[in-house]
């Protein structure tokens, strides 16, 4: 299988929106009690216009991952994203790494993560932070394996439901 990762462009917004909806649903959809609230969340968070707007912001960078030319995942980096937990003025946020369930064992997440880290370092950042659902052991182990450290837990509302997230930080 040939894996390719490239930076996304504005015309990729529909692909990112669809990948976002599918991968979020595959990973977290079963956790939601109110499916209508989840559909509203999808519409808001993964709407094509919202993704287009996000792609046009100078501090956001997206990557698309392809397996044999099929779009199978994406990542989003928000440059210069400060967080009171991260003791640095030079921090960026890894906002998303999503890979379709059928492709999780293909090292695509790692290729996306490496692209994000390289870009954050190129922007003179000293730290990269992210939030991950505290029960998502697979993701937490992945991030720990690649140098991220758990810092604090915080509760955030997603689709009108509260979830506990781990904030993890990687120093360069």
Can you put this structure into words, describing what you see?
With 172 residues, the chain is of the alpha+beta class. The chain has a single domain, classed as Gcn5-related N-acetyltransferase (GNAT) (Aminopeptidase, 3-Layer(aba) Sandwich), CATH 3.40.630. It has five helices and seven strands. It has helices spanning 13-28, 35-45, 48-56, 108-122, 137-145; strands spanning 3-7, 60-67, 70-78, 91-99, 127-133, 149-158, 161-171. The protein has a seven-stranded mixed beta sheet, sandwiched between helices. α1 crosses α3 (48-56). The radius of gyration is 15 Å and the shape is globular. It starts with a strand and ends with a strand. The mean pLDDT is 95.
SSE pattern, N- to C-terminal = EHHHEEEHEHEE
- N- and C-termini, Cα separation: 31 Å
Judging from the principal axes of the Cα atoms, what is the shape?
globular
State the fourth-level CATH superfamily. Gcn5-related N-acetyltransferase (GNAT)
CATH architectural type: 3-Layer(aba) Sandwich
- What is the radius of gyration? 15 Å
Q: How would you classify the quaternary structure?
A: single chain
Task: List the topology elements.
Blueprint lengths: L2 E5 L5 H16 L6 H11 L2 H9 L3 E8 L2 E9 L12 E9 L8 H15 L4 E7 L3 H9 L3 E10 L2 E11 L1
Parallel strand pairs: 4-5
Antiparallel strand pairs: 1-2, 2-3, 3-4, 5-7, 6-7
């Amino acid at each position: 299988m040939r894996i390719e990762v490239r930076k996304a462009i504005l015309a990729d917004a529909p692909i990112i929106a669809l990948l976002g909806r599918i991968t979020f649903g595959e990973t977290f959809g079963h956790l939601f009690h109110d499916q209508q609230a989840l559909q509203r969340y999808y519409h808001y968070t993964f709407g094509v216009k919202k993704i287009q707007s996000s792609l046009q912001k100078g501090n956001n960078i997206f990557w698309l991952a392809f397996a044999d030319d099929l779009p199978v995942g994406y990542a989003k980096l928000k440059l210069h994203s400060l967080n009171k937990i991260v003791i640095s003025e030079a921090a960026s946020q890894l906002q998303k790494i999503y890979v379709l369930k059928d492709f999780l064992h293909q090292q695509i997440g790692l290729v996306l993560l490496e692209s994000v880290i390289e870009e954050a370092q190129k922007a003179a950042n000293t730290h990269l932070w992210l939030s991950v659902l505290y029960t998502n052991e697979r993701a937490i182990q992945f991030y720990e394996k690649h140098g991220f450290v758990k810092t604090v837990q915080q509760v955030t509302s997603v689709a009108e439901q509260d979830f506990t997230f781990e904030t993890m930080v990687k120093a360069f």
